[in-house]
Amino acid sequence: MTGGNATRPALFLDRDGTLMEEVDHCRDPKDVRAIAGAASELARARALGWASIIVTNQSGIGRGYFTEEQFHAVQRELIRQLDGLIDASYMAPDHPDNPSPRRKPAPGMILEAAAEHDLDLSRSWMIGDKALDIEAGKNAGVRTILVETGYGRKVTGCAPDHRVPTVVEAIRLVLDG
User: Fold this and answer.
1) Best exposed site among 16, 34, 125, 161 by fewest CB in 10 Å?
2) Which residues face 55 on adjacent strands?
C-alpha cells in the first residue's frame, strides 16, 4: 500500500553486510555479529513510529549451501542481537539463475511487506550493501541508501539516493533528515 491509507513508513533493511557483518553464506548463529550501534538506532526508529523490515536474498538455500532451518537459526540470533527490534523478515531462497519476483532486484518482498504491514512506501527507505538492494528499492518506489559495510565499499554503477559508512549512519540520515 502507498499513499493515504498506509499508516507508517518503513526501513527496509538487507541482512548480510548491512545489519550484520558479512559472512559468506552465513549458516551458523555463532558467526553472527550485528553492526555495532544498529540496535540503538532501530530502537529510536521504532519510538518514532517506523517499521523495521528485513528483506534478504538467501541464494545459499537455493545453491544447497545451507538449509532453511539454518537460515532461521542465524536470523533468530541476529534479531536477538538487535534486541528484537525487527518487525518482520522476508527471505528469497532462489538461486540467481532462477529468480522469482521476490528475489532482489525485483521488488516483491518490499511490496509484500508493505501490503501485509500497512506501510507507506512514499516515506520508506531501502538500506543495503549491494546494487541489487538499491535496484530493489528503486523498483519498489522507495528511496535508497548504500552502506559501505559488506560489499558496499566496492559497489559502483548504481545510483543510491545516499551512500554512508554503516547502517547506523543510514538510519540517522533517515530519522534526522
Assistant:
1) 161
2) 90
Confidence category of residue 54, pLDDT binned at 50, 70, 90: very high
Residue type, 39: A
CA gap 61, 88 in Å, rounded: 20
For the cut 90, the answer to whether the pLDDT of residue 161 exceeds it is yes
CB 58 within 8 A of CB 72: no
pLDDT at 2: 43
Cis peptide upstream of residue 105 (ω within 30 degrees of 0)? yes
Q: What is the DSSP letter of 93?
A: -
Which residue is catalytic, options 16, 87, 120, 129? 16
Amino acid at 155: V
Burial class (CB in 10 A: 0-12, 13-18, 19+), 24: exposed
CA distance 92 to 95: 9
Predicted model pTM: 0.95
Could you confirm whether 16 is annotated as catalytic? yes
Supply 165's cell numbers.
559508512
Which residues lie closer than 8 Å to 68 by C-beta, 6 or more apart?
Answer: 61, 93
Q: Are strands 51-57 and 88-92 parallel, antiparallel or unpaired?
A: parallel
Task: Using pLDDT thresholds of 50, 70 and 90, give the confidence band for residue 6.
Answer: low
- Residue 116, C-alpha cell as written in the block: 501485509
